Amino acid sequence: METPMISRRNLLKGTALTLGAASLLRTALTPSAALAQSGDMPPGTVHRFSKGGVGFHTYVSPAMTVNVTSHIVEFDDQLLLVDATFMPPTAQEVSALIASTGKPVGQAIISHEHPDHWGGAPMIDGVTFNTLPEIREGLRAEAEGGQFGIPTNVLDGGDIAPGMTEMSGVPVEFRHYRDNEAPHMLVTVLPEQQVAIVQDLVYNGIFFAPGVNRTNWITTLEEMRDDPAFETLLVGHGLPTTRGELDTAIAYIKVLDDAMTNAATPDDAIAQIKAAYPGYSGDFLLSLIAEYWSR
Where is the Metallo-beta-lactamase domain (predicted)? Predict the structure, then answer.
């Protein structure tokens, strides 16, 4: 794979950003071409591969924004774009990646309600994002009540209908999963290439957000684990991976749920998770545990 250089209302209830990004957010809600090179935010990375005549480009934002991703699927004559990242500098890098292909965006989607995946949408000129109606309404409430501006190119977009379709003659399936990491998740599957863009159903090497229903989240991943439609996973935080990461995610969510159920305090829960996953990054996501604490 190639790797070229290229907030807060209730802590956003599952948005992924570091404390450094939260500080940067206060001054970074307008485009700044120099910001990514100024030292305030390092550049992201791009990871590429091809399967079955289709190209896949995954943009991974820098660690200060918890390695949130945007994916570009490259067909013969057009692109499928999944998510916009969070900050203006990272969204500008996604725009540059789109331009580098020399192909138009035929379809752009937002995978779920959390602002780290749609906050950069206004920076991606000329692209209108489609999504599930349920996601749009959740996103609208978040945008109107938050600090991120109104992403008109998402709110004015069209509806995605779950099921099979085609792009450039290649089968593409849109799936709607409910009540997992987010209230709604739009997953994109390319069965001929055996690639699934699962976004925040799976994190790779990054601490998970607490989720809205961890029991159902585990059940969903167990069902996906038995699904023969994909071997490669493009995730919402971190590098592309394989279906084996589903087992890792299931185990992680069980540890997360046990810690949030049985620990005496949020800090105790955080300590348990860090002890179980010492190699993971994205400490800001662990701070969200206090916002979900119900005892």
Answer: 67-237
